[in-house]
């Protein structure tokens, strides 16, 4: 059975005055349940991740200041909102959901986290609404437990996975692949193992051709035994922050390329949902739900 991490805190509102499309975290599972793609038993509520696991990835001083809500005003501005205890707990549950998802993926081929994809958080910083880097923590967890020996992280959010690239810059067992807007946030990029910078206004065919070619390169270079996929839908033409021009169908075709490759290679894959900032929440939710619909077709 395909398992999906979700918790009520995922949709917890941010502090007053800070806007962010948190509603999608409620609407995605509601839509999937309503249409019959999933049943309630597909969903699981993760606990919080332990400090021991966090410290496999994040600097101790950074984590303790995050935990104790003592990050400086400057550091909180870099994150994008003032901290509170519920936001930190939310991140701890997101991270645990991604870790738990790795075990479900090993059993069932694929697993999801309705949230996650917090790829701007580096080893000692938070940034861009990201406090802890869920997929990086989960990757280090797998390596530490000897559950994987070669990991591929496929990051197709429109923004570069700068935190992920920084965390694994000296870790040869993790191959980081990021396709992202060249002139988009973050404006100071890190160096992934494979970076594919994209021009503003890039359209469907060119994007999918680039992905097909570079996805093959990433698999050949990494020879993974586990895959993480960050499936942000901020690549859509309707996205307020994305600057690309992809249709919803091309976004679905993107996911099909990744998921089919994992299935054909018999590689377990954990999927975190990443960004999506279209003006109409329906566009965000439908594009994210397409990823789940594909997975149930391909892996069931």
UniProtKB/TrEMBL annotation:
The keyword Ubl conjugation does not apply. One of its GO terms (molecular function) is histone deacetylase activity. One of its GO terms (biological process) is epigenetic regulation of gene expression. Transmembrane segments: none annotated. Keywords: Hydrolase. The keyword Transcription regulation does not apply. Residues 20-288 form the Histone deacetylase domain. InterPro entries: HDAC_classIV (IPR044150), HDACs (IPR000286), His_deacetylse_dom (IPR023801), His_deacetylse_dom_sf (IPR037138), Ureohydrolase_dom_sf (IPR023696). Belongs to the histone deacetylase family. This is Histone deacetylase. The lineage of its organism: Bacteria, Pseudomonadati, Bacteroidota, Sphingobacteriia, Sphingobacteriales.
